[in-house]
Specification:
heterodimer; A: alpha+beta; 9-stranded mixed sheet; globular; B: 542 residues; mainly alpha; Sodium/glucose cotransporter; 22 helices; transmembrane helix (chain A); membrane (chain A)
């Protein structure tokens, strides 16, 4: 099995707190979300960006850069969300086709022929109080809100919670 | 009166060539693919917002709004006074749901919520309505070309259609946000210069404008009449225009496309904020030009052209110094091309995604879909051209665009609101609501004497109430069908998990919500604008 590498967290705790505070959160924690990355580039040219997704995601995330900013160390602190399945190369290509249709200036960029790379995307989770608790997910690379990851993160948090309860019962 | 000189023609061709060169240099032939993606992110938010405004309305505003102002003074500003409030609804309700759902076309949300028939019908309505409105957008630069060259409008429509379709099929130039920003400034410069030349040509200057405007009631922007047949009453603007703009900016794929393509919800909000703050001042500027033109025509004893859309282009060509007229006319051209490009692109994208790839050829290659999207672009270009021939009969172009939308978009907005707010509504109700909503708009327009601004309100009210009542005759939707419109964390077990995690997570401190601040800012702006209009009206009426 291919080892899942972790991308370097660029948004530190203070910056994440500031960003999440603006979105209404009153508590935060680091997280790692398991995704697969497919290389994007001009036909026959170098890689210029990466499409990040799982089989379940309806739209992929776009990560710009020739190289994936990997961290040599294993991610330790933070909850690991690994509830997604790997996308097929055909599904990735079709996903990119619709992205290109929606943004015509991306038309010349294509998915390059290679196996999608499994990786850990660093994120920060924010918890917003109110009549109901709300979850906020921001990227640990850019600080942008990532609402499209919410359902996957919620599923992962629920699984983590159930696993923890099971282990407590068995102890 | 210099007319459109050879130098103007050189400037016109030079400007359009320069914009095209910048587009092809920075938009298409990049050797480094990172620039394709980073292009938009290196540019400040205000430039992106201006670019959105340039795509939305600049050319038809330049041509249509002075005609409005000439005819009715500032009374029609109430049509736009509600824009900040409409943007608040978009920011708070529609944009977060569209973004979270991860959709390319907003009609996909209706399929997940109500099934394929609702998506197909709503996408079809968009195609019909936007195709017709694109005809009006095509008519606007053709009219300018006709005024400049003296050729017939129909001939210039055909020339413009050929130019716009070829330009869109080749890829357009909308890739470069800065060119949109330049166009926006050229148009505003044209407007400010028009004001300068017009006012300096009046013996009493601004005094003449204000006394003529006040004497002829042109500063009466706020009409408090409760009579629904008064087209531009404050209530029509608030209760009718509000739904018009929520529907226009929220359910028209060509408008919401950029919001869906924004990297994040906050970016999407920012582009809506710029529209929310700038649309009223921009309309005020162009309506005011109409008032000044009315003063000018009255003082010089001139007869206005039969088609009031020609007012400002005619004035620019006749009064501006050689070269400057060419620049402003070129700005109108380039801005119209940008709007046409974006409208034709969204029409062809919806045709391919919502129809062709679903019903005709589901698993074709990328190259095949590219070809299909080009054929669709040509088809919608021809459809718009046919309608453009009749656009001159619809009055001021800016009103024509909004009226066309209001036949369809009210019912469409009602269906979206039903999908979001009523968790009991289902496919049967949505279809019934959508169809009866539209029919009721047509019936009300034909049978009752009420302001067209209420069309969207009627569409929303009927489609929501009929949709809800008919939904009661069929089973409630499943949990899966509601997943896009419900807070995914609302389930009790999920709330317990989140509460536990929040307790163990790092505390942040006092909250300061950005979205709330942005919405309060828009509401304050609405109050300031309304207050200023009331003051102006109070002054004009002594």
């Amino acid at each position: 099995m291919v080892k899942r590498l972790a991308l370097t967290r660029r948004i530190d705790e203070d910056a994440a707190k500031r960003r999440l505070q603006r979105l209404g959160a009153n508590a935060c924690e680091p997280a790692w979300v398991g995704l697969w990355a497919a290389a994007l580039g001009m036909p026959g040219g170098a890689t210029g960006a990466w499409l990040l997704c799982t089989k379940e995601m309806r739209r992929a995330l776009l990560l710009v850069g020739a190289e994936l900013p990997f961290n040599a160390q294993e991610p330790r602190t933070g909850v690991h969300i690994d509830s997604g399945l790997p996308p097929t190369p055909e599904a990735l290509k079709r996903l990119w086709l619709w992205e290109r249709m929606a943004t015509p200036r991306h038309w010349r960029i294509q998915v390059q022929d290679s196996v999608p790379t499994p990786l850990w995307l660093p994120c920060w989770l924010g918890y917003a109080p109110g009549r109901q608790h709300r979850l906020l997910v921001i990227s640990g690379l850019s600080g942008e809100p990532l609402p499209m990851l919410k359902s996957m993160v919620l599923k992962g948090l629920l699984q983590a919670h159930q696993k923890q309860q099971l282990s407590e019962v068995s102890e | 009166m210099e007319g459109f000189t050879l130098f103007d023609t050189v400037v016109l061709i030079g400007y359009i060539s320069l914009i095209a060169w910048i587009g092809s240099r920075f938009g298409k032939d990049q050797h480094n693919p990172e620039d394709y993606f980073l292009g938009g992110r290196k540019i400040p938010g205000w430039a992106i917002g201006l670019s959105v405004m340039a795509t939305q309305a600049s050319a038809i505003t330049f041509i249509g709004a002075p005609g409005w102002g000439f005819e009715g003074g500032l009374e029609r500003l109430v049509t736009f006074i509600n824009v900040p409030l409409a943007m608040i609804v978009l920011i708070l309700v529609l944009v977060p749901i569209f973004h979270r759902a991860g959709i390319y076309s907003i009609y996909e949300l209706l399929e997940r919520r109500f099934g394929p028939a609702t998506r197909t019908l709503s996408a079809l309505l968009f195609l019909v309505a936007r195709g017709l409105a694109t005809g009006v957008v095509l008519y606007a630069p053709a009219l300018v070309l006709a005024v400049v060259t003296g050729w017939s409008v129909n001939l210039t429509i055909i020339i413009m259609a050929v130019l716009a379709i070829s330009y869109t099929v080749m890829g357009g130039i909308s890739a470069v946000i800065w060119t949109d920003v330049v166009q926006m400034f050229v148009l505003w410069l044209g407007a400010l210069l028009s004001i300068f030349f017009l006012v300096t040509s009046l013996p009493g200057g601004w005094g003449d404008v204000f006394s003529f405007g006040a004497a002829s009631g042109m500063f009466n922007a706020i009409d408090l009449s409760f009579d629904p047949s008064v087209t531009y009453s404050l209530w029509a603007g608030l209760f009718g225009g509000f739904f018009l703009h929520v529907a226009y900016f929220g359910t028209d794929q060509s408008q919401i496309q950029r919001v869906l393509s924004s990297p994040s919800v906050l970016d999407a909000q920012r582009s809506l904020l710029i529209g929310g703050y700038l649309l009223i001042p921009q309309m005020l500027l162009f309506l005011f030009i109409g008032v000044i033109l009315a003063t000018y025509y009255q003082q010089h004893g001139l007869t206005p052209p039969e088609d009031l859309n020609e007012l400002l282009p005619r004035y620019v060509v006749s009064a501006f110094p050689s070269g400057m007229a060419g620049l402003v006319i070129a700005g109108v051209f380039a801005a119209a091309m940008s709007s046409l490009d974006s409208a034709l692109n969204s029409l062809s994208a919806v045709t391919v995604r919502d129809f062709y790839s679903r019903y005709i050829k589901p698993n074709a290659s990328d190259a095949h879909y590219l070809k299909a999207s080009r054929v669709a672009t040509v088809f919608w270009g021809l459809y718009a051209t046919l309608f453009a021939f009749f656009a001159g009969n619809l009055g001021p172009v800016i009103e024509a665009v909004n009226q066309i939308g209001s036949w369809f978009y009210g019912a469409l907005l009602g269906t979206f609101l039903l999908a979001i707010f009523s968790h009991r509504s289902n496919a049967r109700g949505a279809m019934a609501g959508l169809i009866t909503g539209m029919l009721s708009v047509w019936a009300v327009s034909a049978l009752l004497d009420i302001s067209w601004l209420y069309n969207n309100t009627v569409g929303v009210a009927v489609s929501m109430s009929v949709g809800y009542l008919v939904s009661l005759t069929a089973p409630a939707p499943s949990h899966d069908q509601l997943s896009d419109v419900m807070m995914s964390e609302a389930a009790p077990d999920m709330q317990a998990v989140l509460a536990a995690r929040a307790d163990n997570a790092q505390a942040i401190g006092k909250e300061a919500r950005l979205t709330r601040r942005r919405c309060i800012g828009l509401f304050a702006w609405f109050c300031i604008m309304l207050g200023m209009l009331a003051l102006l009206q109070g002054w004009a009426n002594g």
